[in-house]
């Protein structure tokens, strides 16, 4: 910062190059602009950015799912909770390219018990068959009227479908057709449960087809 007097310029208030001039306390003052410096990011920072990018992009396609599966998780949004919970489900290579490990991906998280569900797929009919086993009630963790959901995720299109299954207290089978334009080879399947009023959820489970 420098003080100067100028009869030609009078009271100066402008910027020239990297110098800003102003008039205060009956004096002209010249200040050098301060430009913020950004150091080169570390490999760890680049890895973290890559993880965040792929998870944020995926979360935008999964909003209907994660609004059910991450309800009540912390003070942030369900999307933020999804991204935070799935940091461990992303691998980053030496070029800082991130890849989601889909069998580790969480579609839901919470204190409720995960439902007992298996799934098979028939290529001829293009139908998924969810087989569900009844679970006994346990206060605070499992109720007979808990809602159970399957999730189909097409990993190339990054599109998902929620499949409402039977209540936790029921046995039975639910069929669901492969959505149009989906490739069965790219589909991953998950399940989770919520309270009837949707205020809490279980952890999700990856289902082997």
Automatic annotation (TrEMBL):
Source organism of this protein record: Butyricimonas faecihominis
Name used for this protein in its record: Pectate lyase
Keywords from the named record: Lyase
Any one GO MF annotation of this record: lyase activity
């Amino acid at each position: 910062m420098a003080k100067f007097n100028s009869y030609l310029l009078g009271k100066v208030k402008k910027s020239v190059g990297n110098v800003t001039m102003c008039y205060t306390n009956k004096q002209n003052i010249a200040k050098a602009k301060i430009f913020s410096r950004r150091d080169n990011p570390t490999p760890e920072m680049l890895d973290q950015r890559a993880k965040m990018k792929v998870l944020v992009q995926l979360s935008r396609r999964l909003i209907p799912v994660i609004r059910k599966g991450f309800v009540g998780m912390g003070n942030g949004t369900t999307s933020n909770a999804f991204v935070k919970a799935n940091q461990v489900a992303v691998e980053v290579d030496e070029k800082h390219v991130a890849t989601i490990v889909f069998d580790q991906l969480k579609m839901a998280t919470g204190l409720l018990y995960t439902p007992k569900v298996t799934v098979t797929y028939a290529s001829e009919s293009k139908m998924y068959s969810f087989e569900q086993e009844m679970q006994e009630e346990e206060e605070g963790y499992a109720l007979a009227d808990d809602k159970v959901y399957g999730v189909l995720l097409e990993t190339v299109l990054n599109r998902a479908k929620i499949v409402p299954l039977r209540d936790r207290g029921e046995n039975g089978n639910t069929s669901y057709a492969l959505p149009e334009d989906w490739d069965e080879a790219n589909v991953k399947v998950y399940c989770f449960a919520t309270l009837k009023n949707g205020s809490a959820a279980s952890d999700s489970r990856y289902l082997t087809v």
